[in-house]
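--- STAGE predict ---
source: upstream dedup step, 1 unique chain passed
mode: sequence only
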Amino acid sequence: MMRQTLAILALLIAVPSTGMAAPPPFDLSLVPQGEARFDLTVAGDVKGDWYVSRRRNEAGDVVIIDATTLYPDVRETAAFVIDGKTMAPKRLVIDADFSRSILDADLTGKGAELVGEYRVKKPDEIEKRVVPFSTKLPKGVSFRGTTFHMLPTLPKKVGVTYDTQWFNSLTGKVEQIKIKVTGPVSVKTPAGQFEAHRMDITGGSIDNVVYVADSPQRDIVRVDVPGQDMVFLRRP
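--- STAGE serialize ---
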């Protein structure tokens, strides 16, 4: 997260990838519902928290609220709305403060196009600068944040690797990623011990290791950020 601050503040209009995405076989009927909370640990010490809310609105769209706090002065809240059948991006609103560097965004999906604006401010600037944004997304590409939360809906096929793309809203770019499924593994968290499948995400701006519990419901119980010695652990 911290490594992306300079890139965020230097945000330019992204040049979209012209390749076709190959969406993994997400089953949107299995999207976890309700809230989840995590401890954010750095080098083993609790340094913040992560809050997630997942629900469907009256139109059947999937609505995800994703809020991260890293003490003392990093916070980010993102609200995602995607089509409940196709995962097509509909709306993204970001409110973030990265050590007094401000990043806000309001983007709307219009067919294959994503349009809106970013508002950015460095610590030594008086007011936010508005950066208009418009890009065409390759077919099948959704937001990074929503793809992340769809991982519990993937088939538990050990050894399978999915090649796909997502739109990283913090960099304004489409990224080519790989999702590799391994496991099962045993994962211990403040919420208890779980048998889970491990999913390694590589190729984006930051690699992640996501652990999806097999029961009592399929959901994320741990996330590792290896390059930053950061771990998110599910709370009760």
